[in-house]
Amino acid sequence: MHTVTADSLVVVDLGPRTRRPLRPARSPGPYRRLFAVPGARAFTAANLVARLPMGMFSVSAVVMIAGTRGSYALAGAVTATGLAATAVVAPWIARLVDRHGQARIAVPATVCAVLGSLSLLLCVRVGAPDWTLFASYAATATTPNTGGMSRARWALLLDGDERALHSAQAFEQAADELCFMLGPVLAALLCGTFFPEAGTLVAAVLLLTGVLAFAAQRATEPPAHGRVRGGSPLRSPGIPPLLAVCLALGVVFGAMEVVTIAFADDRGHRSAAGAVLALQAAGSCAAGLVFGAVRPAGPAAARLPWCVAAMAALLPLPLLAASLTGSLGWLALALLAAGTATAPVMVTTMTLVRERTPPGRLNEGMTLAVTGLLGGIACGSAAGGWTAEHLGPASGFALPAAAAALALAVSLAHRPPRRRRR
């Protein structure tokens, strides 16, 4: 018996009477090829553990503070202060990561953030003055951008392979959605089942464990770039419009969350709001994996307006479901459909950030995009709360749709010119 191979066709020769062709072996899928890269599985698993608390901290803080102090206003103010502090501190931490290396900066920055979380827990537990809550939660702003560090590793390992980088960006976005889908549910479960501080405590342990395991994967860590000449990525051509798009997208996410909670509360099903929002994240997660499995058509700069246009077209669905039916079930289906547009927009945006960020400052560029999102989420949450309270929860769904239209206008205004055919 012997085998003969010709191109992709394999023929097995079992003798003069038993020769039959076998089906050509299937090439592995894009994600299987992605995780065949040495070291990819180890740093991805550790990063997922470190990233899960990002969806837990704010919910845990709100439940913990409101449950013990009896004030949602105080809880909201504390979390908003932490968000504002993150917007200021995160780019600085990211610049240090690019300059000195991930392990050297991320570990002490995480320790500082964990100590801030534990301080918040103790201050709530012992009934310390309100100002201590603000100070403690502000210290968590040193939490490094774990998603950005993971994307920087993919950029190093897959340098020059744009097809694989596209799949990696899509996977990272799906991972973000998965963490923000499971995080709030896990936080609410821990706080409700055990004690109000359980969510914050578990999130702090997961963050520290994940970052330590991630930093230990030195073989895939990008090299430290030291001091890089040139200005901030903010001055790079094409970056400011992307940050404006991120700001508008943040308004979409922040307003949608608050308005959905208000709508569910108005219908007497506030406890179901988390599950409804989880469907939106599930739609984005599934779309991200599908988007990463297909070959991208054309440059990312040309794809972005089309992706944002799809989001702008789908976001009126929750408004129609809430206004015309008043049903939480129909709203959940509308959010599931609308969520499918999120991942393609975010993947394409982050691809452009990577392409336009100066060498040696990738983590800083990624973190600036995240900071834009956080700023938009803060604005969207405030505007969504005001709209839901004064105009009604159903009317509040017009705000995310308007923000998506604004993002579309910005992306169209800065799209690259078409090349003339000769």
Walk me through this protein's architecture.
It comes from Streptomyces griseoviridis. It holds the Pfam family MFS_1. This protein has a three-stranded antiparallel β-sheet, with no helix packed on it. It contains 18 helices and three strands. It is globular, with a radius of gyration of 23 Å. The longest helix is centred in the middle third of the chain and has 32 residues, at 162-193. Helix 12 packs antiparallel against helix 18. It is mostly helical and 422 residues long. It has helices at 30-34, 40-51, 57-69, 72-100, 102-126, 130-139, 146-157, 162-193, 198-215, 239-266, 273-293, 300-314, 316-325, 328-339, 342-356, 362-391, 393-396, 398-413, and strands spanning 2-6, 9-13, 19-22. It folds into two domains: 39-227, Up-down Bundle (Growth Hormone, Chain: A), CATH 1.20.1250; 231-417, Growth Hormone, Chain: A (Up-down Bundle).
Summarize the structure.
With 422 residues, this protein is mainly alpha-helical. Helix content is 73%, strand content 3%.
What descriptors fit this protein?
422 residues; Growth Hormone, Chain: A; 18 helices; 73% helix; 3% strand; disordered N terminus
List the SSEs and their pairings:
Layout: E1 2-6, E2 9-13, E3 19-22, H1 30-34, H2 40-51, H3 57-69, H4 72-100, H5 102-126, H6 130-139, H7 146-157, H8 162-193, H9 198-215, H10 239-266, H11 273-293, H12 300-314, H13 316-325, H14 328-339, H15 342-356, H16 362-391, H17 393-396, H18 398-413
Helix pairs in contact: 2-7, 2-9, 3-4, 3-8, 3-9, 4-5, 4-6, 4-16, 5-6, 5-9, 7-8, 7-16, 8-9, 8-11, 8-15, 10-11, 10-15, 10-16, 10-18, 11-14, 11-15, 12-15, 12-18, 13-14
